[in-house]
């Protein structure tokens, strides 16, 4: 357990940041799930709409440090490719 005042404060900050990041990650996953479900249903227009909402959410998570920027870009790219494949 933290003994010094600075260590106690650091523990409080970490707990706050963890809660915030957890909420951000959960929100991002919700948006991703909506895209995945639309793709699984084979509905390209619904997948496109969900993707348009999910893309900024992914990039926001990357900018806040929840995801690495390249990871977010890779996810966006792969989702977009899968949505395009629905139309083909």
What does this molecule look like?
With 88 residues, the protein is mostly helical. The protein has helices at residues 5-41, 44-63, 69-87. Helix 1 packs antiparallel against helix 2 (44-63) and helix 2 packs antiparallel against helix 3 (69-87). The longest helix has 37 residues, at 5-41. 86% of the residues lie in helices and 0% in strands. The radius of gyration is 17 Å and the shape is elongated. The chain has 3 helices and no strands.
**Number of continuous helical runs:** 3
Using the CA coordinates, give the radius of gyration. 17 Å
Q: Could you give the count of β-strands?
A: 0
Strand content: under 5%
* Uncertain runs: none
End-to-end C-alpha gap: 58 Å
Summarize the structure.
With 88 residues, the protein is mainly alpha-helical.
Describe how the helices and strands are arranged.
Layout: H1 5-41, H2 44-63, H3 69-87
Quickly list its features.
88 residues, mainly alpha, 86% helix
């Amino acid at each position: 357990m933290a003994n010094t005042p600075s260590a106690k404060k650091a523990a409080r900050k970490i707990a706050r940041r963890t809660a915030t990041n957890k909420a951000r990650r959960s929100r991002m996953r919700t948006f991703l799930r909506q895209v995945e479900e639309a793709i699984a249903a084979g509905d390209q227009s619904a997948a496109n709409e969900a993707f348009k909402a999910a893309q900024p959410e992914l990039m926001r998570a990357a900018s806040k440090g929840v995801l690495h920027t390249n990871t977010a870009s890779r996810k966006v790219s792969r989702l977009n490719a899968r949505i395009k494949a629905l139309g083909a």
